[in-house]
Automatic annotation (TrEMBL):
Summary of the function given for this chain in its UniProt record: Converts cobyric acid to cobinamide by the addition of aminopropanol on the F carboxylic group.
Transmembrane segments: 49-66, 73-93, 146-168, 286-304
Topology in the lipid bilayer: Multi-pass membrane protein
Keywords: Cell membrane, Cobalamin biosynthesis, Membrane, Transmembrane, Transmembrane helix
Highest taxon of source: Bacteria
Family designation: Belongs to the CobD/CbiB family.
UniProt source species: Dyella nitratireducens
Pathway: Cofactor biosynthesis; adenosylcobalamin biosynthesis
Protein name (record): Cobalamin biosynthesis protein CobD
InterPro entries given in the database record: Cobalamin_biosynth_CobD/CbiB
Coiled coil location: none
Gene: cobD
Subcellular location: Cell membrane
Length: 306
C-alpha cells in the first residue's frame, strides 16, 4: 500500500508544484552526461554503452544504497521526491494550454510560437489544424514518456526504477539520434529506451482506449501503429488519436523539408478543444492508474493479514 500512497503523493506534488523552476535534477544530470560524453566519446557502440552505464547505473545504484540504509519513513519520502521529479504531468498542461488558448483566440502566430516550445519541427509554415495536431502529438507521446512510464517503473522497481527510466529517457533525448555523431555512440541509449518503454507504451495506449473511444483507439492502434517509425510512439499516438476521434500524423516540416509521415487516428481535424480533450484524457488515465494501484495495494495488504 505504501507504493500506491507514494504514487498518489508524487502526483499531488506535481499538480501543486509543477516542475522545479530552479535546480531541476534532470538539468544537473544533463550537464553530467555532457561531461561524460566529452571525455568518453568515440564513434563506437561500446563507448556509448559505457557512457550510458556510467551516467545512469551510478545514479540508480547510489539511490538504491541510500534507500536501503535509510529509516523506512525517510526511504518512503525519498521515493516520493524521486517520482515527483520524474513526472511531468502539470508541465504538459503548462505547455499545451497556451497553444489551445492562442488557437481559440485566432492568434495563429502566437500558437505557432507556443507549439514551437513543445516540438522540434519547424512551426512557421503550419496552419491551425497542424499546430493543434503537433501539440496533441506531444501531449499523447509525452503522456507515456513523462507520466505513465515513470509510474510503471516505480510500481515495478520503486524509486530506483523510476530514476532508471527517467534518466534513460533523458539520454535517449540527448544521444538517441540517427546522426553521424550519434549513429553508433547513441545506439545503446536509443535501444535501452526502446526496451524500457515497450510495456509502458502499450499500457499507455490501452489506457487511452479505456478512457476515450475504445473501439476507435484499438482499431487505430492495430492498423496504424505498425506504419510509424518508433515502435513505442506509434501505439501511443495512434491509440490516443483514435480515442479522441481526431486525425494526427501526416506530413510535417523538419529542417525546411516536409517529411512524409503516416496518418494516425480518424475523424476530424484537431482544434483548440481537441488539445484540451487530450489533456483531460491523460488526467483520466492517471486517476485510473492510481485507483488500480490503490486497489492492488489493498488486496495485497488484505492477503498478508489473512
Amino acid at each position: 500500500m505504501s507504493t500506491a500512497l507514494a504514487m498518489l503523493a508524487a502526483v499531488l506534488l506535481d499538480r501543486l508544484l509543477g516542475e522545479p523552476r530552479r535546480g531541476h535534477p534532470l538539468v544537473a544530470f544533463g550537464r553530467m552526461a555532457g561531461w561524460i560524453e566529452q571525455h568518453l566519446y568515440a564513434d563506437r557502440r561500446m563507448h556509448g554503452l559505457l557512457a550510458w552505464s556510467l551516467a545512469v547505473v551510478t545514479c540508480v545504484v547510489l539511490l538504491a544504497v541510500m534507500q536501503r540504509h535509510a529509516p523506512a519513513w525517510l526511504a518512503w519520502c525519498m521515493a516520493v521526491i524521486v517520482l515527483y521529479a520524474a513526472l511531468g504531468l502539470r508541465s504538459l498542461g503548462e505547455h499545451a494550454q497556451p497553444v489551445a488558448h492562442a488557437l481559440a483566440a485566432g492568434e495563429l502566430d502566437e500558437a505557432r510560437k507556443a507549439v514551437g516550445r513543445m516540438v522540434s519541427r519547424n512551426t512557421a509554415p503550419l496552419d491551425a489544424g497542424q499546430v493543434a495536431a503537433a501539440a496533441m502529438e506531444s501531449v499523447l507521446e509525452n503522456g507515456n514518456d513523462a507520466v505513465f512510464g515513470a509510474l510503471f517503473w516505480f510500481a515495478i522497481l520503486g524509486a530506483p526504477g523510476a530514476l532508471l527510466y527517467r534518466l534513460a529517457n533523458t539520454l535517449d533525448a540527448m544521444w538517441g539520434y540517427r546522426t553521424p555523431r550519434y549513429e553508433r555512440f547513441g545506439w545503446a541509449a536509443a535501444r535501452i529506451d526502446d526496451v524500457l518503454n515497450f510495456m509502458p507504451a502499450r499500457l499507455t495506449a490501452f489506457t487511452y482506449a479505456l478512457c476515450g473511444h475504445f473501439e476507435g483507439a484499438m482499431r487505430c492502434w492495430h492498423t496504424q501503429a505498425p506504419q510509424w517509425d518508433s515502435p513505442n510512439a506509434g501505439p501511443v499516438m495512434a491509440a490516443g488519436a483514435g480515442a479522441l476521434r481526431v486525425r494526427l500524423g501526416g506530413a510535417a516540416p523538419y529542417d525546411g523539408v516536409w517529411e512524409a509521415r503516416p496518418e494516425l487516428g480518424e475523424g476530424a481535424t484537431p482544434d483548440a478543444d481537441a488539445i484540451h480533450r487530450a489533456l483531460q484524457l491523460l488526467q483520466r488515465g492517471v486517476v485510473l492508474w492510481l485507483a488500480i494501484a490503490g486497489l492492488l495495494g489493498l488486496a495485497v495488504q488484505g492477503g498478508m493479514h489473512a
